[in-house]
């Protein structure tokens, strides 16, 4: 588990060159097809717009890779709106070095370059990224370049990519001559919920992980927070995976994802579409999410030897019945104050997935009763990492974990547990009072740093194996 999360932490969601993801979205696929249409039909101007992080540059890089060898390509990635002319930038994009010239000199240089390219049968393509920063004069320079032709077709094709402000700029009354030369115009929209889920699963698959690492509810929440923006999806997934590694969980749930987003939002640098601090998770969906994570345990038949001539006895007993008996015996011993004997029963019962949460939590209660808060906290955390528990039981165990940490002097970690409870059920016991009695949580919780360090040590093999769940 820790190995896989360590691998995931190596930026599996970064927008590395991966054109396959484009075909997961009908919007990106349509944009790619339109770009191809514009290039292969010698459109003078092609315009691609979209919000930051929607994949414009990835689309451009994909179409350029597919067109390699057919075009002489010049790319302008940054411009400044205060520049007097774009022609020096264009000359530099095509590697036309020479002495510093005025606007007329650069125009002549570019005219000669386009003439040579056309005579050699080579098409010329200029790509201007972040084109919303161009001013009126720069756009006019591009229009003048597009007028250079041999009387039959333009010698240069120009792709303008930028944020939605570019569309506003081109629809101005003084841009009509350039707008008339735009043959292809496409606005790239964010992913819808189904596409966002497919995108996440694809990125996990590319990273070598489980495509279902994020639960259905987590994917739904991810789309709500990101608005379907791929770049923001990447950031949230990276953050959630780090938290998952820190807490040693098997899957990324909606509660864990929301906790990661809330912690980042406290720093004020999370550009989420919806403020995660205003989101209340649906207890019904949380409960369903927990139930969906672990399949119902199948009874394992254990044959019982039958003695010859002995009276007939049951042919088999189920492992589930045995676990139930062990768990009930443990409860009886615990009620009688025989905590050490109860620990043995709960340890045996925890081997059954159906009782793993309850039995592990009861071990925590026993250690708390005999005055071992550190061991109790460890088993409470193990219980919370088990999938399949009811929301009410999870809240109860988290509450006792908070009390245990609080009495042990770990106030910051206790507050983290109280806050998680408050986000799910603000009316749970006295949790509102406990939240109000603690100062504002730090921007990056110390409990997370501690758990990350502990799990990293465990990954490196320095944690004693007996500390792990049996």
Kindly describe this structure:
- This protein is of the alpha/beta class.
- It folds into three domains: 163 residues, P-loop containing nucleotide triphosphate hydrolases (Rossmann fold, 3-Layer(aba) Sandwich), CATH 3.40.50; 102 residues, Helicase, Ruva Protein, domain 3, CATH 1.10.8.60; 128 residues, Tetratricopeptide repeat domain (Serine Threonine Protein Phosphatase 5, Tetratricopeptide repeat, Alpha Horseshoe), CATH 1.25.40.10.
- Helix content is 53%, strand content 8%.
- The protein contains 21 helices and seven strands.
- The strands form two sheets. Strands 2-3-4-1-5 form a five-stranded parallel beta sheet, sandwiched between helices. A two-stranded antiparallel ribbon has the order 6-7.
- Helix 6 links the parallel strand 3 and strand 4.
- The chain is elongated.
- The relative contact order is 0.09.
- The N terminus and C terminus are likely disordered.
Give a quick set of tags describing it.
about 475 residues, alpha/beta, Rossmann fold, Helicase, Ruva Protein, domain 3, Serine Threonine Protein Phosphatase 5, Tetratricopeptide repeat, 3 domains, 5-stranded parallel sheet, two-stranded antiparallel sheet, disordered C terminus
In short:
With 470 residues, this protein is an alpha/beta fold. The chain is built from 21 helices and seven strands. α4 (87-93) packs parallel to α5 (103-119), α10 (216-226) packs across α11 and α14 (319-335) runs antiparallel to α15 (339-349).
Q: How many runs of DSSP E, i.e. beta strands?
A: 7
* Percent range for β-strand residues: 5-15%
Distance between the termini: 15 Å
- Average of per-residue pLDDT values: 78
CATH superfamily of the largest domain: P-loop containing nucleotide triphosphate hydrolases
What does the largest sheet look like?
Answer: 5 strands, parallel
Enumerate the spans where pLDDT stays under 50 for 5 or more consecutive residues.
1-17, 294-317, 439-444, 462-470
Structural class: alpha/beta
Count, helices: 21
CATH architecture of the largest domain: 3-Layer(aba) Sandwich
The percentage helix is 40-55%
**Spatial shape:** elongated
